[in-house]
Amino acid sequence: MNSFKHYSEKLLQMSRQALSEKRIGDARRFAKKALILNHSLEEAWLILAATSTPGKSISYLQKVLKINPGNAKAEKGLAWVKAQLKDQPGKVAILPSIRAEVIASLNQSENHKTKGMVFLRRISSRWQSILALTGVLLIIFFAIAAPLLAPAVNPVGPHWFKVVCERLNCIPEPPGGASPLGTVKEFDVYHTLVWGVRQSLIFGLLTASITAFIGIVLGLVSAYFGGWLDRLIMRMCDAFFAFPIVAGVALFAQLSVQLAVSNQSQRSILMTAANKDPNFFLNLVTSTADKVPNFFLNIVMNTDPILIALILFSWMGYTRIIHSQVLQIKKEEYVKAARACGASHYRIIFKHILPNSITPAIVMATRDIGRMVVIQSSLTFIGVGSSSAWATLLNLGKNWIIGPGGNLLTRWWIYLPITLALVFFGVTWGIVGDELNHWMNPKNT
Amino acid sequence: MNDFLKFIIKRLVAVPVTLFIITLVLYGVVMLMPREARIELYMPETRSVLPGWEERTREKIIERHHLNDSFPVQYYYWARNLFEGDWGYSPSLNKNVLPELVKRSPVTFELIFYALLFQIPLGLFAGVWSARKKDRPLDYATRFTAFIATALPEFILALILLSVFYVTMQWFPPERLSVNNHLFIQSDAYKTFTGFLTIDGLLNKRIDISLDAFRHLVLPVVTLSLAHWATLTRITRIQVLEEMKKEYITAAYARGLSEKTVIWQHAFRNALGPVLSSSAISAATLVTSVFIVEKIFNLKGVSDLVTKYGPMVPDSAAVLGFAVYSTLIVLGLMLLLDILQAIFLPQIKEDTIKNEFV
What we know:
The complex is a heterodimer. By secondary structure, chain A is an all-alpha fold. Chain A contains 22 helices and two strands. In chain A, strands 1-2 form a two-stranded antiparallel ribbon. In chain A, helix 11 crosses helix 13 (280-288), helix 16 (316-330) runs antiparallel to helix 19 (359-381) and helix 19 runs antiparallel to helix 22. Chain B is mainly alpha-helical. Helix content of chain B is 76%, strand content 1%. Chain B is built from 16 helices and two strands. The two termini of chain B are 22 Å apart. Chains A and B meet through helix 10, helix 11, helix 12, helix 13 and helix 14 of A and helix 1, helix 7, helix 13 and helix 15 of B.
C-alpha cells in the first residue's frame, strides 16, 4: 500500500514536470496512471481537466469538487468551462492560451502549498488525529517547560519532588497558598505532577525505542536468514513471554544491591542498619554505584532496574510482528527480482524488506510509550522498584485514602491529579498509535 | 483422539524447553552477582553460632557446588538442586524458599482461578453482545467501559475500589479472612484440603468461612478481571464482526435460522479460536497483575517473597526462587488454557498446532 502511494506521488510529479515543459500528452498519461494507483489525487484530476476538451473537463472538475468541495481552482475552472460551452457549443478543444493559464495557476499553487500545510490539512480531517496531536504536543510542552511551570528547588539532583513541609509529621494539606494542588506528606503535588511528565516521557521514549530496536533486529534476522537461528529466536520469544516482569525487576534490583553489599564485609551488621533506615540499601547502591570496576555492571547499578527489566523482557512482541511481516514480504516478486539482480543482503533488507515491514512495529512502539510508563508506575507503587515519581507520591499518600478514616472525595488532591495525568499519558500514546496505524497502514483500519 | 494426544504432548514438550531458556537467562544474571550472593542459594536452614562455622560452611558450599567454575558447570549444579527441590535459604524470611512459595501459592491460585472464572464468560458474552448490537447504545456503553478499564491502571482502580467499598461502605474488606475466622483456620479443628479457603470452608462444614472468603475475594477479583475483561471483549467483538461478514452467515440467514442461532452457533464458534489463543498469551500479564493486586489487597501470596521487604534487601535465594516459580505459574496457566481450548474446541486445535509450531 505504501509503495502504491509512493509511486502515485512520483507519477504526479512526472506529470507536473511534463506539463511545465508543455508536453501535454505525457502529462495526461502520467496523471492517468497516478489516478489508477490513487483515485483521490486532486491535482491529477486538475491536470487531466486542463489538458482535455471542455466537455470532458467538466466531469474531471466535478470529481475534484467531490474529493475536496473547497477547491477554488476547480470551481473557477468549472465556471469558466460552463461559460465557454455556452458561447460556443460546438467547440472541441481548449484554447492553448487557456491551457497556459491553468498551467500557470498550477505551478503557482505548487509554491505556497508546502509539505507542512499538506500534513496539517490531512491531520485536521479526522478528529481523532487532532486529539492525538494535541495530546502529544501538550505532553512535550509540559516536559520541556517543567522548569518554568514549577521552578526546580535544588539546582543539580533529581527535580521530581519539592519539600514544602519541614516538620516531622506532615499531613496532606488541601490546595491553597504556595501549593496549588495541595501536598502529600511533605511534598508538593503540583511540582511532582509537572516534573513527572518529563520523567515519564523520557522513560517511555527510552524503553520503547530500545525495546523496539532489539525486537526489530531479532525479528528481521530470524525471518530473513531462517534456519536454526530462526527456530532459536522464536523459541526464545516463547520463553520470554512466559516470564512475568515483576520477577525481572526484582532480579535486577537484587543484582545491584548484591553488588553494593559485596564490598562490605559483615552482612549481619548491614541488616541491623537496614532495620533502622528503610532506605539503607537504596542509599548503599547509589553510594557505591560508581566504585564497581566492571563497565557493564556499572551501567546496571546506575540504571533503574525497571528500565532494564522492561527492555530485557518486552522485545518479543516486536520480534513476532516483524517476523511474520518479513516472512510475507520475502515471498514478494520485487524481493525475488532484487535478489536475481544480485543485490546484497544489506541492500535487500534495508531497501526492500525493512521499509515495507516496519509500520506495525512503529505503531506498537508508539503505543508502548504509554504502556511502559503505566507498568513502571504500577511496579513502583507495589514497591518493586522506585523510579516513577507519580507512583511514589501516590504510594506516600495512599494511607489517607484507604487507611482508616480515608476518603476519596474530601482528599481528592492526593490521587486525582496524578491519576488523570497517568491516564492521559497512557491514553494519548494509545490514540497516537491508532492514528499512525490509520495513516501509515490504511489496509488495517 | 490421536491428534489431541499429539497436541498435548507437543505442548508438554515445549514447557521444559521454555523453562530451560528462562533458567539459563536467570542464572546468567545471577552469575553477574558476587560469589557471596550465589553462596546464599545453598546455605542450609539450620545454623550454628559456633565461631568460624559460617566461614567453614561457605568454603564447603563453594567446593560442593563448584562456585569457582565456569557458567555451564555452575548452572548444572544449580539446576539440579532446583530440580531436587532445594531452592535455597532466604535470610530475610529466615526460612527455606520452596516451602514458603508453596505455602503462599494457594492464595495466588485462588485469585487467578476466580478471576478467570469471572472474566472469560463475561468477556465473551459482552463481546458477542456488543457485536450483535453494533453501533447501538449498548455497543457504545460496552466499548466505553472497556476503554476506561484499559486506560485506568490496575493499582489505581484497586485504590478507588478499596476506598469506596471498604473504607466508606465497609462491604468488602481486604486480606483473606476476618480476624476470628483467621484464628479458627489456624487452630487444629480446621483441616486444609486444597488451600482454597472458599472450598476448604465447605469441606470443613463451615459455610460461613467460605462466604467470608468470597466476600474478601470480591474486590481483588473485580480489579483483576476488569482490565483483562476489556481486552477479551474487544477481541471477541472484532472477531465476531469479522465472521459476520462471511458468506456462510448470509447462507445461514437465508436458510431461515434465527439471529440468535446464527450468532451463537455459527459466528461465535468460529470466532472463538483467535479469542482463546489471545487469552492464553495474556496469561503472563495476568500473573503480573495478580502480584500487583496481591500487594494492594494485602493477600500474602507468592509475591510476598519480594514485596514484603522490597527487592532492595540482599536475598538472592528468595528473588531467584520467586522468578522461577512465577515462570512456572505462567507456563502452567498457558498449558491449562491450551488444553481447555483443545478439549472444548476440537475444530480449533489443528489451527493452533499450525500457529504454534510453524
